[in-house]
Amino acid sequence: MSGYRIAIVGATGLVGQTLLQVLEDTGVPVATLVALAREGEGRFVEFGQDRIAVEPLERMDWGRVDVAFFAAGNAVSAQYAPQATQAGVTVIDKSSYWRMDPHVPLVVPEVNGAAIGDSLLIASPNCSTIQLVIALAPIQARFGVKRVVVSTYQAVSGTGRDAVEELEQQTRAQVSGGSVSPEVYPVTIAHNVLPWCDRFGEADYTGEEWKLMRETEKIMGQNLRLSATAVRVPVYVGHAESVYLETEQPWSLEEIREALKTGPSVRIVDDPVHGAVPTPLDAAGQDDVLVGRIRADLHESRGLHLFVVADNLRRGAASNAVDIMRFIGTRRNQDIPAR
Ligand SMILES: NC(=O)c1ccc[n+]([C@@H]2O[C@H](COP(=O)([O-])OP(=O)(O)OC[C@H]3O[C@@H](n4cnc5c(N)ncnc54)[C@H](OP(=O)(O)O)[C@@H]3O)[C@@H](O)[C@H]2O)c1
Question: Any signal peptide, and if so, which residues (predicted)?
């Protein structure tokens, strides 16, 4: 059979499962699919009509594949991505381990696909970063962006399957009058809003906030003077972002809409009077970045407000990774690897 020979590291996790779904949805030809996790014994994943046995990562022979998606956390990417690239495998990494390495391209294909160059190791950005740069890029291209302030409303699936389970359990316990004991998050997530994601770091910003600020600047290639506040909300799928930005050039709201329409993956959902606003429930299960609440600031003549929502597991992770693989295939004019 001809097609891509693919490994998914972390195939049993939320991103791994979504990768399987996106590969199936996009219909890219797949000749080999190796599903890897901590342990294999008796575990299977579904891919279309096929049931694929899960294999332990530590026994992987990298000669079996051409492309490996890594979705198993930083420690796994640090240890195994170099082994895979040394065997000639193209690694598309969803962890944050390699993202800020100056030798590793950090890529959202519709924004900076050319950055891939000849690298065999390509980092895919944080989920909040991907939807932000997709929304900012068309405005940046036409009017220049000189300042961004973003507050996120991030779904629990961004933390992985244990967090989804925790929200389910806590919600059930709370509605039935039971008690909750937080484990994944430091405090109760059900019916709550946590004004931080990840650990606190430099200058009292969290790790998630630093990722959003540094990754956006690495991708968009200029100092956007971005400030971020990352917030966790009790939503299962779909990250939302309230974005304020200031541009170099003047614009009308009509021109902003026209610019946004040119952005691949951007869909304007902005008719609040008739109920058309971007929400996580609308974003979940599809690949567009929904942009709405488009309005001018009342005090700053080049100040613009947007509300940006996307499925963190698809657009924010799996679909971006699969798009990187397809971008490389198209660019090398070999959508199907030669072997
Ligand atoms: N969730 C998101 O929205 C999102 C977005 C962007 C990036 N990411 C990143 O993607 C990665 C995966 O996230 P996730 O949400 O899918 O996590 P998850 O649901 O917790 O799944 C983790 C996966 O990694 C595997 N794994 C963990 N340790 C391993 C090891 N030592 N060897 C082999 N496999 C191992 C697990 O296998 P077992 O089943 O055997 O434990 C499981 O398949 C993380 O780096 C995360 O930061 C996530």
Answer: none
Where exactly does CATH 3.40.50.720 map onto the chain?
A: 4-124+317-331
3-state secondary structure the chain: CCCEEEEEECCCCHHHHHHHHHHHHHCCCEEEEEEEECCCCCCEEEECCEEEEEEEHHHCCHHHCCEEEECCCHHHHHHHHHHHHHCCCEEEECCCCCCCCCCCCECCHHHHHHHHCCCCEEECCCHHHHHHHHHHHHHHHHHCEEEEEEEEEECHHHHCHHHHHHHHHHHHHHHCCCCCCCCCCCCCCCCCCECCCCCECHHHCEHHHHHHHHHHHHHHCCCCCEEEECCECCCCCCEEEEEEEEECCCCCHHHHHHHHHCCCCEEECCEHHHCECCCHHHHCCCCCEEEEEEEECCCCCCEEEEEEEECCCHHHHHHHHHHHHHHHHHHCCCCCCCC
CATH of domain 4-124+317-331: 3.40.50.720
pTM value surpassing 0.85: yes
The reply to whether 239 belongs to the active site is: yes
Ligand 1: residue of 94, 130, 162, 314 to mutate (most ligand atoms within 8 A of CB) is 94
What's the gap in Å between 152 CA and the centre of ligand 1?
22
Q: How far, in Å, is the centroid of ligand 1 from the Cα of 11?
A: 8
CATH number of the domain located at residue range(s) 129-312 in this protein: 3.30.360.10
- Cα of 35 vs centre of ligand 1, distance in Å, is 13
